[in-house]
Amino acid sequence: MTAFALVLAGAKAPPTYQRVAVIAIAVLVLVVAVELVRRRRLLERYALLWLIAAAGLFLLGVWQGLLTTLATDVGVRSAPNALFALGFVFVVGLLLSVTLVISRLTEQNKQLAQRLALLDDRLAELERERAGR
Amino acid sequence: MSRHLAIVPALNEAGSIAQIVTEIRRHAAGFDVLVVDDGSVDNTAAVAAAAGARVLRMPFNVGIGGAVQCGYLYARDNGYTVAVQVDGDGQHDPRDIPRLLAALEEEPGVEMATGSRFVGEQGGYRPSPPRRIGMRLFAGLVSLITGQKLTDATSGFRMSARRGIELFARDYPPDYPEVEAILLLHAHRLRVREVAVEMRPRTSGRSTIARGVQVYYMAKVLLAVLVGLLRRRPTADGDRS
């Protein structure tokens, strides 16, 4: 019955249950991100990205026709395709930022290991000198 | 006062490290021996120390580039004027060290002397065909970029003077560093000279470049070389931190 009503309503506006699902997912992302920050498992700096993603998703769910308007503006005929493209860009951007972070950490990690090895050696040297005195 | 240091990176080489340390002390008497133990799980460090080497112990495995760079940091901080890298697996013959030193000192402007496996008559060194192609490719590429004929760009047996030490202490490729190190020197307008050496079959351990990662090795070094061309390097005298 509901499905029939939707068909009658035409394809213009996304079906209500879909919008509810999108809003639910947005809220879920928000809750998970906040909870991870609360448990100190995720730094605020990185949580921000997820909060922005949740906000964007929420906006798309609430604001009827936003996605369709955006899609037609950039010449994409089907709104779901525009959504996929948007999501894909977001994920790729996230991956890039993650590899940047890993690269920086790797470099810092190496420098720390080197300093530690050198200090270790100096400490042993000093202890030898002290013992020999 | 010139001080000379032999940097020996070692990973699980307890079986051969003592012999190398002893050989360096015998054949290159003017060199202090520094073994950089890159997170070995055997007693490499203890064996090396017992043989008379100074030992730096990395807290965990940081990879060959990071370990060797740690050696250069040590050389820089302790005022060494010449540093030579000798592999811990027995491939490099310490008897060649005095010849590398002569090459470094007899010609002004030469900042690094490398032991080449392909200068002069062919010795016993016979790499597998894919490895041979890779070595040729990199030697050609490096010759092209530096405008200087080099026969062996992938040799890890290398000796550098003070400016090279300072340069490598500050900036050294994290893995498979041989090719990039030459280009790094070139970017700082420092010259490299090759000396004919023979490599011995390794006495222990395995090549860090296993069969499966040869393709990765090629791709990584190529990428590093090509991107390196786009990068503006400071000169060795300039500051950067």
Description:
The complex is a heterodimer of chains A (133) and B (241). By secondary structure, chain A is mainly α. Chain A contains five helices and no strands. Helices cover 84% and strands 0% of the residues of chain A. Chain B is of the alpha/beta class and 241 residues long. In chain B, 40% of the residues lie in helices and 16% in strands. Chain B is built from eight helices and seven strands. A seven-stranded mixed sheet of chain B has the order 3-2-1-4-6-5-7, with helices on both faces. Chain A binds chain B through residues 106, 109-110, 113-114, 116-118, 120-121, and chain B through 36, 54-60, 62-63, 66, 69-70, 73-74, 77, 174.
Shape of chain A: elongated
Enumerate how many helices of chain B there are, as a single number. 8
- Kindly name the structural category of chain B: alpha/beta
Termini separation of chain A: 95 Å
Low-confidence stretches of chain B: none
Mean pLDDT across all amino acids of chain B: 85
Radius of gyration of chain A: 26 Å
For the biggest sheet of chain A, the summary is: none
Q: How does the helix and strand content of chain A classify structurally? A: mainly alpha
Name the helix and strand elements of chain A from N-terminus to C-terminus, one letter apiece. Answer: HHHHH
Average of the residue pLDDT scores of chain A? 84
Helical content class of chain B: 25-40%
Distance between the termini of chain B: 28 Å
Which series of helices and strands of chain B comes N to C? EHEHEHEHEHEHHEH
Oligomer: heterodimer
Strand content of chain B: 15-25%
General form of chain B: globular
Radius of gyration of chain B, taken over Cα atoms and rounded to an integer in Å: 17 Å
For the biggest β-sheet of chain B, the strand order reads 3-2-1-4-6-5-7
